[in-house]
Amino acid sequence: MDRGGRISGTLNLRLTPEGFAPPRNRFALFVHHIAARAGRSRLLRGIEIIFVTVLLAATALYGAIRGGHADAVLESLHDIADILAQHAGFQSANVSIEGAPRLGRADVLRIAGITESSTLFLIDADATRTRLLHNAWIAEATVGKLYPDRLEITIVEKKPFAVWQSRRNFFVIAKDGTVIDQLVRERVRDSGMPIVVGEGAERRAQDFLAILDRFPVVRGETAAAVLIAERRWNLRLKNGTDVRLPEEDVDVALMRLVALDRDKHILSRDVSMIDMRLPDRALVRLSDEAAQARDATMKARAPKRRGTDT
Known about the structure:
Elements: H1 26-37, H2 42-67, H3 70-87, E1 94-98, H4 104-112, H5 125-133, E2 138-146, E3 150-157, E4 162-166, E5 169-173, E6 179-183, E7 195-197, H6 201-212, H7 216-221, E8 222-228, E9 232-237, E10 242-244, H8 250-264, E11 271-275, E12 283-286, H9 288-301
Parallel strand pairs: 1-3, 4-7, 7-8, 10-11
Antiparallel strand pairs: 2-3, 4-5, 5-6, 8-9, 9-10, 11-12
């Protein structure tokens, strides 16, 4: 400080081989001057570095936005801030993760946007939780900072509920219809999960399968549930039979189907279609083989016509 009471000095911080010196700022120089006189204590060094980091971030981000590279620059600035904070005496976070058996530790850290060397002081717990919740596999997350150096992350993963077929692609979905993974065709049957087919089926699967679960006889014979025109469901049975269900009162139709199977064993008969859409009757279509066998039987039973004498 000179005789006129003005602060003098230069702040020079090199971050690259070429060097980058932030512009002079009276507050930055003031903090730097006090830190030097106080023996550069850990707290004052931290204040100075945080201020300079914010100044650098603002300058670099402005240029990055204009150049279309904001994400890359933000990531680099975050790493730089960690390095500077550690030099200032702040400790790296000791990260503990619970409840992520499928994702694993490396995946959780990547999704959270932190590394094993991230500084606890610079981690935003709320922002970290928000990033985690954006992942399709994560249903809930809690992030807690325990000073001086502990970061606790607890994950609740979504549970696979069903397989959804959309055109020729297969996806694992959660109860709320969220797509959480893709599945190859060869693994669909081995997954052991119910299969729903059609546009919009992933969003309506939970409600429909809850109804179907009330009729275990039908559910046990069902290979897939197909949503038709996003209005009503068909069942494709394991033997290839299609069961056409009404748009409303699906539970009543399934109850009638159970009674029909109890009396006529309809679910195991050689039929290609069972139409349950009419409230007072069921329409049944025989398979081609069954129809041919029936025609042959009827023809054999028909009385032979007497030939005409010539």
